[in-house]
């Protein structure tokens, strides 16, 4: 009996050994990858994949290291084998599509991203990539892809950035402001945040260009119409021009009016955040942060110098929370 027991232990140990080896090899490869030593990472990942051919994460990292090594054809070769798997994730299609893009094969990139969307129709990153490919070709239907990304994956930041920039360059007076502010809340440390803050500030000037904000409104979205009706009531406040202080007053009055009139009909996480800032006495600090572009930086620095307590409280708030738009609050229809 003792002999049988020892044999069972030996068999179990041999069964577990490959899995343990693969994990160790994968960890070692990632150490090399983080150091930028992609050839060594590739060497080890190939060994790990030989032991465990069905390991998705190992195969994905192998493709990624080929991408970092600029061996784009090999990257595509490795990742294409994963496309039809039931457990494939959007990163596989994104990396492969990016490899096509690096080879200047826009068609291959778009087809790969779209194939990923067919497999994973809720993937915000893939809609974002399709939109970028279309935009690079001067195809304005790119906005439809970014909108689909926002609708299907509202927590992903990239589609908000691209959609906001698109609308800022158009005649739109609503969505560039909303999407831009959502973007900097989801990804406040983004390298694109200063750019977005600039066209948020300039976008409010654009919004109040006409005395009647509802005039010539081509947006048939009931939400956008409600937004413009509520914002139209604040037009008398811009008589002295747009600056951070006037925007604080305008946006405070807007939220109070919206909360009383439309909040139940159109619950919106961004406006709920504004209300929370108002209740906690942080809305001034938040607005200085939102509109802290190059033009307003002197005013921002002056304000911080005299409101250190509020600024510290805002910083704690920004660090402690993670902003994410929920599903069911897509109103651009």
Residue ranges: pLDDT <50 for 5 or more in a row? 1-17
Q: Tell me the helix content.
A: 55-70%
Kindly report the average pLDDT value.
Answer: 91
Rg result:
25 Å
Task: State the order of secondary-structure elements, H for helix, E for strand.
Answer: HHHHHHHHHHHHHHHHH
Task: Give the helix/strand class.
Answer: mainly alpha
What's the tally of helices? 17
Distance between the termini: 72 Å
Q: Mind describing the biggest β-sheet?
A: none
Q: What shape does the CA trace take? A: elongated
**Binned strand content:** under 5%
How many strand elements?
0
Structure description:
- The chain is mainly α.
- The chain contains 17 helices and no strands.
- The chain has a domain at 208-333.
- It is elongated, with a radius of gyration of 25 Å.
- The N and C termini lie far apart (72 Å).
- Residues 1-17 have low confidence and may be disordered.
């Amino acid at each position: 009996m003792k002999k049988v027991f020892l044999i069972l232990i030996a068999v179990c140990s041999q069964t577990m050994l490959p899995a343990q080896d693969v994990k160790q090899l994968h960890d070692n490869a990632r150490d090399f990858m983080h150091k930028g030593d992609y050839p060594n990472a590739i060497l080890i990942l190939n060994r790990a994949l030989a032991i465990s051919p069905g390991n998705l994460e190992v195969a994905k990292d192998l493709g990624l290291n080929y991408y970092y090594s600029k061996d784009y054809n090999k990257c595509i070769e490795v990742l294409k084998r994963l496309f039809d798997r039931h457990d494939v994730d959007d990163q596989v299609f994104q990396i492969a599509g990016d490899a096509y893009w690096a080879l200047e094969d826009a068609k291959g990139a778009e087809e790969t991203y779209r194939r990923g969307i067919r497999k994973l129709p809720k993937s915000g990153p893939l809609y974002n990539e399709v939109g970028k490919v279309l935009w690079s070709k001067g195809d304005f239907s790119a906005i439809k892809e970014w909108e689909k990304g926002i609708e299907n994956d509202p927590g992903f930041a990239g589609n908000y950035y691209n959609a906001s920039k698109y609308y800022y360059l158009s005649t739109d007076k609503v969505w560039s402001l909303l999407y831009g502010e959502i973007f900097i809340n989801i990804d406040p440390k983004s390298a694109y945040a200063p750019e977005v803050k600039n066209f948020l500030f300039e976008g409010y000037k654009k919004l109040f260009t006409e005395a009647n904000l509802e005039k010539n409104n081509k947006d048939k979205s009931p939400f956008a119409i409600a937004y413009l009706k509520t914002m139209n009531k604040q037009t008398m406040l811009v008589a002295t021009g747009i600056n951070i202080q006037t925007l604080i007053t305008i946006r405070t009055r807007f939220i109070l009016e919206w909360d009383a009139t439309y909040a139940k009909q159109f619950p919106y996480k961004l406006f709920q955040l504004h209300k929370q800032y108002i209740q906690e006495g942080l809305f001034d600090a938040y607005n200085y942060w939102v509109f802290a572009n190059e033009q307003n930086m002197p005013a921002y620095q002056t304000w911080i110098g005299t409101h250190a307590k509020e600024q510290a409280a805002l910083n704690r708030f920004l660090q402690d929370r993670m902003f994410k738009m929920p599903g069911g609050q897509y109103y651009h229809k």
